Automatic annotation (TrEMBL):
It comes from Nocardioides daeguensis. Residues 1-22 form the signal peptide. This is LysR family transcriptional regulator. Keywords: DNA-binding, Signal, Transcription, Transcription regulation. Pfam families: HTH_1, LysR_substrate.
Length: 297
């Protein structure tokens, strides 16, 4: 469809990197670059500012991205409506933050049996906007900074708290500890991939009496953990991610450390969310209450 380049541009916006978008979409980086360049020519303005570490939106890019998300969401709704009108079974459209995609949401989707579903990844604000505008039926989001503002278009079902932990290389002195004070890592170099996680780290470090040296930036969680595994840094990650971590890193719990809360968001209606979305929320609430997938300590 003609919106292909729009979808590619929005993936670059969400991931902050041409290469990360290419990997997610299954394109080469040069193909992503060509699509963005063609879109910029069509718009008549530069949409992205290329930087040594990823890209940033220009003012024109921010304005375009906001409306492009609404347009792509409307296009997705049109496609789904046409398919359903033609007799196709309704596909449950699910969204989740990257850490929730690592285990919590896929496991919950297994409980839906034969119900067809699709799964999209994004930031909490992007996912909730898609839920509110009909692009998604349900999304698993967090209240990590800047937090979740009231939105009467949404109903948020609380899942529970997700304590953050520090990921270190296997040879790190703290690797053998189940739990430690954050101050143990005061002299470390940190890597971050997300402004919300960085804000949590800075606030927790301030309470522990130090300012973290966030000297490295990664495009996503996978890149963040890879830098830790190679011994370049340590990182703050959600406890929800721990079961899916690679074997060459170790998660250390934090005594009185920062945490975020998780929610399953659906549209307030009318119309009411589809039955499959209601069922998925019930599964997520139950699964989280049983603590099945939260970090093991």
């Amino acid at each position: 469809m003609v919106l292909t380049s729009w979808r590619t541009f929005l993936a670059v916006c969400r991931l902050g990197s041409l290469s990360a978008a290419a990997a997610e979409l299954g394109y080469t980086q040069s193909a992503v670059s060509r699509q963005v360049a063609a879109l910029e020519r069509e718009v008549g303005q530069p949409l992205l500012e290329r930087r040594p570490r990823g890209v940033a939106l220009t003012r024109a890019g921010e304005a375009f991205a906001q409306r492009a998300r609404a347009a792509v969401s409307a296009a997705d709704r049109a496609l789904r409506a046409a398919a359903e009108a033609g007799g196709a079974e309704r596909v449950l459209a699910v969204g989740a933050t990257p850490s929730a995609v690592a285990g919590l949401v896929p496991t919950a989707l297994r409980e839906l049996g034969a119900t067809p579903w699709s799964l999209a990844t994004g930031s909490s604000d992007e996912l909730e906007e898609l839920v509110a505008t009909g692009g998604l039926d349900v999304a698993v989001v967090t209240d990590a900074p800047p937090g979740r503002s009231d939105d009467d278009r949404l109903v948020r079902h609380a899942l529970g708290a997700d304590p953050m932990c520090v990921v270190v290389p296997t040879g790190h002195p703290a690797a053998g500890r189940d739990e430690a004070d954050l101050g143990v890592f005061a002299a470390e170099t940190w890597v971050e991939d997300d402004d919300g996680s960085a804000a949590l780290l800075r606030a927790a470090a301030a309470r522990a009496g130090f300012e973290p040296r966030i000297d490295l930036a990664a495009a996503d969680l996978a890149g963040k953990v890879a830098l830790v595994a190679a011994g370049h840094a340590v990182a703050l990650v959600p406890g929800l991610l721990v079961p899916a971590l690679r074997r060459d890193v170790v998660a250390v719990g934090l005594t009185g450390g920062p945490m975020r809360r998780l929610y399953a968001s659906v549209a307030a209606g009318p119309p009411d969310p589809p039955a499959a979305a209601v069922r998925l929320v019930e599964v997520l609430v139950d699964q989280y209450a049983r603590n099945d997938l939260i970090r093991a300590r």
